[in-house]
Design goal:
With 104 residues, the protein is mainly β. It has one helix at residues 52-65, and strands at residues 3-5, 11-13, 17-29, 32-35, 42-50, 71-77, 94-97. Helix content is 13%, strand content 41%.
């Protein structure tokens, strides 16, 4: 858990948020990414309560674990009404990965 220091010297715990992680199969055409639709296309879906920094690291870890399949990994808030963590709009919350084509 990350801590920040308050002006008075006291430690403050980083805010926890409900995050949803979804990894879907995807296809790539040029610069476009086409995530597949339907429940069969979901490689991983989970929700966790964690800090934003931990959620970004977890998204990268999940994406690297699925690198045998072309996919799009997305980090979102579990509930639409949740307040977004600081930096949410300035950071990429998605990882697109195109698996190398296997030789014949």
């Amino acid at each position: 858990m990350m801590k920040s220091i308050e002006p008075n010297g006291a430690a403050k715990m980083a805010a926890l948020h409900d995050f949803r992680f979804i990894l879907r199969k995807a296809s790539f055409k040029g610069n476009l990414v086409f995530p597949a639709a339907g429940s069969a296309s979901i490689l991983i879906e989970e929700c966790k309560l964690m800090t934003y920094a931990d959620a970004q690291a977890h998204l990268a870890k999940l994406s690297s674990a699925a690198q045998s399949v072309s996919h799009s990994a997305m980090l979102s808030m579990k509930y639409r009404v949740d307040r977004k963590p600081r930096g949410w709009n300035q950071n990429p919350n998605r990882i697109d990965y195109e698996a190398p084509i296997q030789g014949v």
